[in-house]
């Protein structure tokens, strides 16, 4: 590591180091948050799209059958 020749160079070096540290910290925080969100989603009981579509089609068919039965009576 080289020693700064004047105050401005030293301040520039410190600011550059702080920015690098800030970027690294930001990336670490983003990774940590993404992992936590993923864990929470895995714990929740969500319905897969395929299951939803299958159930929707079944309900639609039942409604249609019910309407047909009403008209037949």
Care to describe what's here?
This protein is mainly alpha-helical and 73 residues long. Helices cover 84% and strands 0% of the residues. It has one domain. The protein is rod-shaped and about 100 Å long. The chain starts with 6 loop residues before the first helix and ends with a helix.
List keywords for this structure.
single chain, about 70 residues, mainly alpha, 2 helices
Average of the residue pLDDT scores: 86
Beta strands, count: 0
Percentage of residues assigned to helices: over 70%
Tally of individual helices: 2
The best one-word shape is: rod-shaped
Structural class: mainly alpha
Main beta sheet: none
The helix/strand series, from N terminus to C terminus, equals HH
